[in-house]
Design a protein that fits this description.
Number of helices: 2
Largest sheet: 2 strands, antiparallel
Radius of gyration: 18 Å
Shape: elongated
Strand content: under 5%
Oligomer: single chain
Distance between the termini: 58 Å
Order of helices and strands: HEEH
Length: about 90
């Protein structure tokens, strides 16, 4: 959502998917919600007739922050698989 408006954003979707790339099979997708509050002057909602696609003024920094935040969250909450090697005394 952006300022309460439902939106789809393929570029931001790719940021989420790339963060999960090594964690889930290619034919699966994570469920997620984004909720942005931004200055209305910094977006353009007239990209698609249904007004569900939004163009942001500066998309690259948002993409970078979004991808980094997802990766950090996955690591923080142990969503990343871990391998524990126990040593055996010989």
């Amino acid at each position: 959502f952006v300022n309460g408006r439902f939106m789809r954003h393929p570029y931001f979707h790719k940021a989420i998917i790339s963060s999960y790339s090594e964690l889930i099979p290619d034919d699966e997708q994570p469920n997620y919600f984004l909720n942005f509050s931004v200055d209305p002057e910094s977006i353009d909602v007239n990209i698609h007739p249904t007004k569900t696609e939004i163009k942001f003024e500066n998309e690259l920094p948002i993409w970078q922050i979004l991808a980094a935040a997802v990766k950090e969250s996955l690591g923080r909450f142990s969503a990343v698989p871990q391998i524990d090697f126990d040593t055996i005394d010989a």
